Amino acid sequence: MPMYQVKPIVDRHIAIDLPTCMYSYQIHAQHGDSCTAEHALQNGEVEPSVKALEARQDEIMRKLYELKATVDGLAKTVTTPDADLDLTVGSSLSSQSFSSAALKSPTDLDAVLGKDLGALRDIVVNANPAHPPLSLLVLHGLLCQHYRVLSSVHVHSSVASVPPQLMSCLGPRHPDSYARHMFQLGFTLIWKNVPKVQMKFSIQNMCPIEGEANIARFLYKLLVPYPSDPAVATLVDSWVDTAFFQLAEGSTKERSAVLRALNSALGRSPWVAGSEYSLADMACYCCVMRSGSASAAPANVQRWIKSCENLGHFKPAEMLQ
């Protein structure tokens, strides 16, 4: 029986034509091993060598599908001028089930983002590992509870090394990550030496969004509509900006002033912007944690921190503290 050895040669700059690969492999199997197939039919059974060849073919096809899916997944990213990826860590999916009761339907996503002919919308975030965007990691976890999210982590060549906890911050690799059609959203996090966190969504139709506050607003709207009351919406926006620009990046004096104002607001209502949890709570919580002010925070803030943690949304942020 003639033996055939398949030596796949993969180059990051070569596009893979999967149908051609499948066709050529099938022709090879049909003509190259015809004598073996006839011998197997004459004896009424399949020889072990034929079974091994079939198993080998199945494994090769599985790897080709996975490789093609990886190339497709990075296609939108590598067309951008700042997406020089050097290390791929893996893909993940929230452990939430695919049941319709736990997830929003694609029509709901269309209602928020508009009709899109593609099977998957890609969110690409560039972030500096020296300043992990805690709020975006929290939002990623919430998105995974509402949508089928294909998540992946990469490292840019501008970064020498990344701590292990940042490499796995989006969870473990999902076994079906090669099947992009199964997912609604793609969430790609690239650890890169950038001055501000950046996000690209539908990169062919919109410019990048810069700043953690702005990105958090965009992603939060995929989960919950902004308050319809203009006064409440303005209050939420004000607290989001205060959290990111004064609490997280401000001086010691500025942080103290924000904590006093936060304590006063929480004395009047259970949540930062009123009676309901909002993006203001998420932003303030993440920035309090980032600034290291939690232990010395006033009483109302301490109570509010426990209320936030009881929601279970902030596990990704807590893991990086």
Automatic annotation (TrEMBL):
Pfam family, one: Thioredoxin_16
Location of the protein in the cell: Cytoplasm, Cytosol; Nucleus
Domain AIMP2 lysyl-tRNA synthetase binding: 1-46
UniProtKB keywords: Cytoplasm, Nucleus, Protein biosynthesis
Domain AIMP2 thioredoxin-like: 119-210
Alphabetical list of InterPro entries matching this protein: AIMP2 (IPR042360), AIMP2_LysRS-bd (IPR031889), AIMP2_thioredoxin (IPR041503), Glutathione-S-Trfase_C_sf (IPR036282)
Domain of life, source organism: Eukaryota
TM annotation in the entry: none
Any one GO CC term of the record: aminoacyl-tRNA synthetase multienzyme complex
Annotated protein name in UniProt: Aminoacyl tRNA synthase complex-interacting multifunctional protein 2
Species in which this protein is naturally found: Takifugu flavidus
